[in-house]
Amino acid sequence: MCRETKREPAWVSVIRLAFLRGTITVEAVMEEANLQPGHERTVQDVLSTMADRNLIRPVESKEGTYVPGPVLIESDRYNLDFSKASDGGAHRWQSAN
Fold first, then answer.
1. In 3D, which of 6, 3, 15, 66 has the Cα closest to residue 36?
2. Any long-range contacts for 91-95 (C-beta under 8 Å, 24+ apart)?
3. How many whole angstroms separate alpha carbon 92 and alpha carbon 73?
4. Helix-strand-coil percent breakdown of the chain, rounded to 5?
5. Which end of the chain is more exposed for a tag (fewer CB within 10 A), N or C?
């Protein structure tokens, strides 16, 4: 995080939203990363790249909405404690094998 502007990279916000909320949108990333208006296209590019890498996947019924993808869901291999996180996040999901 940049201390002067209290902003963090968009991809960090995407991962945080995926684990804590379970859904990701451009607006949510903008708010979470504390980005100023005008950076929506950059966030869209980040989301697209992350989707290409299977970190997140688009929700077909809701354009512009993403959920955690298989790479992100399966990345928790260290038994992290999410007991104080929300009930809707990826940490509560069961991966399909």
1. 6
2. 91/19, 92/22, 93/22, 93/68, 95/70
3. 10
4. 40, 10, 50
5. C
Q: Which residues are CB-contacts of 87 (< 8 A; sequence separation ≥ 6)?
A: none
Q: What's the CA gap between 44 and 52, in Å, rounded?
A: 12
**Chain mean pLDDT for the chain:** 80
Contact between 27 and 65 under an 8 Å Cβ cutoff? The reply is: no
Give per-residue pLDDT as tens, 3-13. 445 667 899 99
Counted residue by residue, the chain has a size of 97
d(CA 13, CA 54) in angstroms, rounded, equals 16
